[in-house]
Amino acid sequence: MKHINKVLIVGGGIGGQSAAIALKQKGVEVEIAEIHSEFNVYGVGIIQMANALRALDSLEVADEVLRRGSPYGQVKLCTPTGHQIGEAGTPPIGKFPSHNGISRRILHEVLYEKCQEMGVVYRMGTTVEEIKDLGDGGVDVVLSDGTKSNYDILIGADGVNSKVRSMVFGDYKPNYVGLSVWRYAFKRPKELETGYMFFGKKSKLGLIPMTTDTIYMFVVTSEGANNPFIHMDERVPKLKGYMQEYPVDMVQGLIAQVTEPSLVNYRPLETLKLPAPWYKGNVLIIGDGAHATIPQLGSGAALAIEDAVVLGEELKVQNGASSIFSRFMERRYNRCKMVVESSERIGEWELMTFEGKELSPEANIGAEMGKTCMALIQPI
Ligand SMILES: Cc1cc2nc3c(=O)[nH]c(=O)nc-3n(C[C@H](O)[C@H](O)[C@H](O)COP(=O)(O)OP(=O)(O)OC[C@H]3O[C@@H](n4cnc5c(N)ncnc54)[C@H](O)[C@@H]3O)c2cc1C
Questions:
Q1: Quick check: CB of 15 below 6 Å from ligand 1?
Q2: In terms of CATH architecture, what is 6-41+104-174+272-376?
Q3: Rounded mean pLDDT, 253-260
């Protein structure tokens, strides 16, 4: 049985850097192999509910994330004309508010700075080329820069199209759910005191605080079952067109500011559920590589951060990789599955609405969000 002292994490995103911090807190030597030679995180925001903040607190970065983001209360759920029909989000947990909105770039910086402070080694511009599991002898790894090293365990945190997953588990493809999301960042309108979601017939539009001065908008649409590519020159007019469905000042006041095609972040939505267990030998997959979800509950990154925290906690009993990974699975599998499946249900109802199909009375998005958010405040 090998003591875990030296770990390679493949992928330096939210999950990978969070895992690096959690492992460093346990005194483990950590290297991150990140495929990009420089990080270039796009400038729209991310929603962090109270459970994400609780997990970030275990990594000792919650205060910084709150300071550099924008804490807010429950999200107001509204008709297209702005009539409030409900509210959503986790209730506050202890000192953590229902939500914090933050720019992805800033969240990345906070995690990166913490990793630097803790002495995490970054191997930028590299990926993994060979993985040889030696059982009690750990894992021999060859990186794309030719470096050969032995690690006690390898963590695949390389996102929804994980190379580590395909090398170790074989071929799993993400599932396109028929929806896409359009995002754009704006100066913060004075009247925007919390998050808003407007439910239209052709789209859903959200306005989310990012900092005291900025917000981002997301618009969920259906561009068709065959997942078409949207050309750059179509992006501004299409996004403006979707915004017309919402005759409220808060949205109408933003339309003229949508001008720059390269700032329209357009993305088809996909999920992926790797069957349990997410480990084989000395290799574990975390984050989107194991459980990518669509943003209907704003929780994918929260799950990746929680994965990291649980992994760090389970290192307290050093009785071999398979026991640690198996305890990790017991704590993570059902919770992640619940979030992905609840998000998929909400996405399916949204798609039916956009396609003009009739929904059954059980298709209640507010109730579904409420049920899952209440489950998320349970301890991990
Ligand atoms: C439109 C949209 C909106 C979202 N909004 C929210 C939200 O509001 N709140 C929330 O909690 N979650 C949200 N999510 C989910 C969240 O973005 C993801 O769950 C989260 O980024 C997953 O983190 P990760 O580290 O697992 O993967 P990633 O963030 O994808 O990071 C993977 C890292 O691995 C690197 N990498 C990739 N391949 C390799 C390789 N072969 N070798 C080495 N490195 C590699 C990448 O460059 C990257 O740095 C949203 C997702 C989408 C699509």
A1: yes
A2: 3-Layer(bba) Sandwich (3.50)
A3: 97
